[in-house]
Amino acid sequence: MVRQLSKHIDHIDHAVKVGGIDHVGLATDNAIQGMSSWATRENWYVPRLSRFKPSYQVRWPAWIPELDSPDRYKNVAHALNRRGYSTNHIEKILGLNWLRYYSDVLKT
Q1: What is the DSSP letter of 15?
Q2: What is the rounded average pLDDT of the residues 15-44?
Q3: Contact between residue 28 and residue 72 where contact means Cβ atoms under 8 Å apart
Q4: CA spacing 20 to 30 A to 41: which of 5, 17, 30, 58?
Q5: Model confidence at 49, in pLDDT bands (50, 70, 90)?
């Protein structure tokens, strides 16, 4: 299955190449306990089959296991490190870029 942590990291790599390391930041829409704690095939997957184009390749389960736990950012950090990202760049992606952005916007 294509949906795995390495594919997610491919997207981060692409964003860094397009926007630069100072303009990439991660966030999550999922609660700390992840989607697997509440989503079922019937209440998540089936309703979306009619709303998403086939090209979106909506599949079950709807999550990447390594990103569906409280360790999600640690897993991303380790994967970025394996790709050759420095500690400084990983810290930017995982939060420092957001802190800089909000500081600039809110002038704090």
Answers
A1: H
A2: 84
A3: yes
A4: 5
A5: confident
* The two three-digit tokens of residue 105, written as one number: 């916007």
Tokens of 53: 């184009």
State the DSSP string of 92-105.
IIIIIHHHHHHHHH
- Beta-carbon neighbour count of residue 63 at 10 Å? 17
pLDDT of residue 6: 92
Q: Is 0.70 surpassed by the pTM of this model?
A: yes
Is residue 34 packed enough to be buried (19+ CB in 10 Å), middle (13-18) or exposed (0-12)? middle
Are 21 and 89 in contact, with CB atoms under 8 Å apart? Answer: yes
Q: Which two tokens stand for residue 94?
A: 């995982």
Q: Which of 3, 1, 8, 2 is nearest to 83 (CA)?
A: 8
